[in-house]
Amino acid sequence: MNYPVDLEKLINYYQKLPGIGEKSAERLAIATLEFSEEEADEFSKAIINAKKNLTRCSICGHLTDSEICNICSDDARNKNIICVIEDYKSIFSFEKTGTFMGTYHVLNGLISPMEDIGPEDINIASLLSRVEKLDNPELILALKPTVEGEATTMYIKKILENKNVTISRLSYGIPIGAEIDYLDNVTLEKALEDRKKISEY
Amino acid sequence: MNYPVDLEKLINYYQKLPGIGEKSAERLAIATLEFSEEEADEFSKAIINAKKNLTRCSICGHLTDSEICNICSDDARNKNIICVIEDYKSIFSFEKTGTFMGTYHVLNGLISPMEDIGPEDINIASLLSRVEKLDNPELILALKPTVEGEATTMYIKKILENKNVTISRLSYGIPIGAEIDYLDNVTLEKALEDRKKISEY
Q1: Pick from B43, B50, B64: which is nearest to A33 by CB?
Q2: Same domain for B83 and B165?
Q3: ipTM of the complex
Q4: Are A106 and A83 in contact (CB under 8 A)?
């Protein structure tokens, strides 16, 4: 395609974004041209500022524009409950549920012998030092159900074995709204394994 | 959602783009944070430059970064064939076919008595003055099959009636790959009306 140079550049940058193909990038670039002068200016600045001002929380590793993130600095959050996640992006998903009132800890990766990633390569030491300062804390391990997720879960469980820490993991099971007939075998197996007595409901 | 301020701004701008909902805007904003410093800088500049440098071709109304667009200034294009369109965006679609070697004329709107848009509100005068300078030109009216599209087609046909201009319109019919059973009535009716003898093929 023979686009004007400045349009082509913009299309190329949109195409670097996830899930944006050639056709969508063209549509987004044209829509950007239809922004007002001021909007285009603000959008352009927003990219630079987000990149420049956002760092990681020194406690939990979440995205923040100050030293400590808005969750760790919120007095209403229960600091004794820590949800351990691989990536800060999961925090947005948990926060959208609106029901979790604990805090988070971002590991920034998972243990993977295959890729030579050990416990020292991810934020486990900082998790331990957080846990040690707490009285009877609860850790919720919210790691994905893969070999790496399981290895990391097992490692954390082991090093905290003799400390006074309650450790749980997210339940596995049938997603709400799913058809049982179309579920994969492993999910169904886990849903059976993790079955709950109706009285516990 | 309690996003860091700079992330929220970026999400808000992505959400102004067509087809980008809240969830996608979050995904795109986070992906932008994962750009390198240089990439983010270039992306930001691309927005400003596209907005600043792109104008309309003084001949056809297409997007261009110089006075005359790359199509009107291309000696290989047949200046005697003009494809008349509502909006410059259609040019990208036609160009992707790779088969049209004529030029374009962007009306920048359609005649609409309902919305009080008359022939003088769209680029028809400039079309006429282009046509008058040509010898035996062909106009291909590629306007959408709505009341406004038809009104504009009829108007252009009428004012050029006694001039030596061949006027055609795009064919209506069954889109390639469509199931006849699922076609709407009007398309099917048009496909019947516009039927072609197999020998013309």
Answers
A1: B50
A2: yes
A3: 0.76
A4: no
Length of chain A in residues, anyone? Answer: 201
Tell me whether residues B32 and A48 touch, CB distance under 8 A. Answer: no
User: What's the total number of domains in chain B?
Assistant: 3
**CB-closest option in A1, A63, A89 to B96:** A1
Residue B159 has pLDDT above 80, yes or no: yes
Q: What is the CA radius of gyration of chain A?
A: 22
Tokens of A62: 């979440």
Q: How many Å apart are CA B10 and CA A102, to the nearest integer? A: 27
Domain boundaries, position B131 = 76-169
Below-70 pLDDT ranges, chain A: 199-201
Residues A49, A73: one domain? no
B contact test, residue of A47, A95, A99 with most B CBs within 10 A: A47
Q: Are residues B158 and B176 in the same domain?
A: no
In this predicted model, what pLDDT tens digit does every residue of A132-155 receive, in sequence order? 999 999 999 999 888 999 999 999
B84 and B35 in one domain? no
What pLDDT is attached to residue A200?
57
pTM higher than 0.95: no
